[in-house]
């Protein structure tokens, strides 16, 4: 990585330190270490010179020199001859970026522990079985009318495209059926966009933290992620920093920017209306297409969210907004039907490249999806009630069992994003696996090894399973093996 941060940008992120001459070198080092742990400062960033930072902070150069010295000693900074000082992670901080989709056999369950692994690595609920079976039976009944043709619909079945367009229009994003392409899930929609718009070596702007599948897509395209750290307000709630977003657009000229504005995975945050307008305006100013991942949008648990981010870009043209969605979160991941909504010209370009890929989505599944969309509002009522109860149950258990952890109550989505207060996520996840609990560690949600202080804990399971999971997590947290090497006595 070749990112660098200026003295004034670092001071802005340090928040509140500037001008405070009581700030000692230890506090400064501590703040920088925390920023590395929670992802606000990426690993592999070139930090300002001692003189520049001292000037920006309004402290003596000796304070910065001592802080940098301490951070070098602890392994959080490294000098490279001739090219300055860079952020790093100490060798003792083990990183875990393994995909949660790795086969479950990849981790070991100790023989004397309870059988039955609990999967909290995926934030995806089980299917509403009755509705799935009913929609499949309805689909089988209409299938014969489709069997007379070849079955290849590059952009999807017209009836499904119309149903998706209707739903998006009702949400506040006026959409015609020919602005919709049916895909094999939201991840497939995103992959199609990346394939059409991103070349090797291009940059792609991502939120930090973000959905791991998005980071994987960028890497597989041999492109370079540009992480833009999410911010927190005074009350600790996650928010988007428009200034950082616009600066990253200007400075790195990415091929596209990917955002999850509604029930962001993993934080659960929702972008406010003013920020939506500013983000779309900045993307248009810099000519950068936005990929808006709305697959968690319908999963509000307290109150409905406002219009989709795409609604702020009603005028198609340069800097298109491409909205992706799917039935994976609202109904079931196993349906494998999603969509891409965007300007017709962009869809045509993407369809051309798809013609040499999987060609089209399966007809039967599209018919099932059409039936599920017709039932979706009823299904969502049930799902929201179940998920809100599970969220509150897990939140209460976490507050009770882990008082040292910090967590906000998400207004939607499927998971808690927990600040462990120490860089122990990977070690905890490794240990939890031995207790039969499968989790995804914080660094999986960022780039450069960030978020070692964080853990995503989904509440998608019934409460008795969540209780069992919390017991296993408590056993893992209390185990000396869950301490990173170098912290505490590990025998
Ligand atoms: C934000 C986000 N985008 C995309 C996906 C993948 O969705 P799909 O199963 O529709 O491909 C997920 C699944 O976890 C997700 O959380």
Portion of residues in beta strands equals: 5-15%
| Order of strands, widest sheet | 6-14-13-12-11-7-8
Distance between the termini: 36 Å
Sheet/helix structural class: alpha/beta
How much is the radius of gyration in Å? 23 Å
Largest sheet: 7 strands, mixed
User: How many structural units, i.e. domains?
Assistant: 3
What is the CATH architecture term of the largest domain? Answer: 3-Layer(aba) Sandwich
Number of H/I helices: 14
Shape: globular
Total number of strands: 18
- The CATH superfamily label of the largest domain reads Type I PLP-dependent aspartate aminotransferase-like (Major domain)
CATH class of the largest domain: Alpha Beta
Can you give a write-up of this model?
InterPro entries: Aminotransferase_I/II_large (IPR004839), HTH_trans_reg/aminotransferase (IPR051446), PyrdxlP-dep_Trfase (IPR015424), PyrdxlP-dep_Trfase_major (IPR015421), Tscrpt_reg_HTH_GntR (IPR000524), WH-like_DNA-bd_sf (IPR036388), WH_DNA-bd_sf (IPR036390). Keywords: Aminotransferase, DNA-binding, Pyridoxal phosphate, Transcription, Transcription regulation, Transferase. GO terms for molecular function: transaminase activity. The protein is α/β, with parallel strands linked by helices. It has 3 domains: 82 residues, Orthogonal Bundle (Arc Repressor Mutant, subunit A); 89 residues, Aspartate Aminotransferase, domain 1 (Alpha-Beta Complex), CATH 3.90.1150.10; 249 residues, Type I PLP-dependent aspartate aminotransferase-like (Major domain) (Aspartate Aminotransferase, domain 2), CATH 3.40.640. The protein is built from 14 helices and 18 strands. Strand 7, helix 8 and strand 8 form a beta-alpha-beta unit. The relative contact order is 0.14. The C terminus is likely disordered. It binds pyridoxal-5'-phosphate (PLP). Pyridoxal-5'-phosphate binds next to helix 7.
């Amino acid at each position: 990585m070749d990112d660098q941060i200026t003295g004034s940008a670092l001071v802005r992120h340090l928040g509140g330190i500037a001008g405070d001459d009581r700030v000692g070198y230890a506090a400064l080092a501590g703040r920088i270490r925390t920023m590395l742990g929670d992802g606000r400062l990426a690993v592999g960033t070139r930090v300002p010179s001692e003189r520049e930072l001292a000037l920006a902070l309004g402290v003596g150069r000796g304070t910065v020199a001592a802080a940098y010295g301490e951070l070098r000693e602890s392994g959080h900074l490294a000098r490279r001859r001739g090219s300055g000082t860079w952020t790093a992670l100490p060798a003792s901080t083990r990183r875990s970026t393994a995909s949660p989709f790795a086969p479950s056999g990849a981790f070991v369950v100790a023989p004397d522990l309870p059988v039955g692994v609990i999967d909290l690595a995926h934030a995806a609920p089980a299917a509403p079985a009755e509705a799935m079976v009913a929609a499949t039976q309805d689909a089988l009944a209409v299938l014969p009318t489709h069997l007379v043709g070849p079955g290849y619909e590059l952009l999807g079945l017209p009836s499904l495209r119309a149903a998706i367009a209707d739903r998006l229009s009702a949400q506040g994003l006026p959409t015609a059926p020919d602005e919709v392409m049916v895909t094999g899930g939201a991840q497939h929609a995103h992959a199609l966009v990346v394939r059409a718009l991103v070349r090797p070596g291009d940059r792609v702007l991502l939120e930090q933290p973000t959905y791991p599948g998005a980071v994987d897509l960028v890497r597989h395209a041999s492109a370079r992620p540009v992480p833009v750290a999410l911010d927190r307000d005074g009350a600790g709630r996650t928010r988007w920093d428009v200034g950082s977003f616009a600066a990253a657009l200007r400075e790195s000229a990415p091929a596209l920017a990917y955002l999850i504005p509604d029930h962001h995975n993993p934080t659960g945050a929702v972008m406010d209306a003013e920020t939506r307008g500013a983000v779309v305006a900045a993307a248009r100013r810099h000519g950068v297409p936005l990929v808006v991942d709305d697959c968690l949008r319908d999963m509000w648990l307290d109150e409905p969210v406002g219009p989709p981010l795409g609604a702020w870009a009603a005028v198609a043209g340069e800097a298109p907004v491409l909205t992706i969605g799917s039935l994976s979160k609202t109904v079931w991941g196993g349906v494998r039907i999603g969509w891409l909504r965007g300007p017709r010209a962009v869809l045509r370009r993407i369809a051309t490249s798809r013609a040499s890929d999987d060609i089209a989505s399966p007809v039967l599944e599209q018919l099932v999806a059409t039936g599920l969309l017709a039932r979706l509002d009823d299904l969502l009522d049930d799902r929201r009630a179940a998920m809100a109860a599970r969220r509150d149950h897990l939140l209460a258990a976490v507050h009770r069992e882990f008082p040292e952890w910090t967590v906000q109550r998400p207004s939607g989505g499927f998971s808690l994003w927990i600040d462990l207060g120490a860089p122990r996520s990977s070690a905890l996840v490794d240990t939890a696996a031995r207790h039969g609990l499968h989790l995804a560690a914080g660094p999986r949600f960022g780039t450069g090894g960030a978020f070692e202080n964080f853990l995503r804990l989904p509440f998608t399971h019934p409460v008795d399973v969540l209780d069992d999971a919390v017991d296993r997590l408590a056993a893992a947290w209390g185990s000396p093996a869950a301490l990173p090497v170098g912290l505490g006595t590990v025998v």
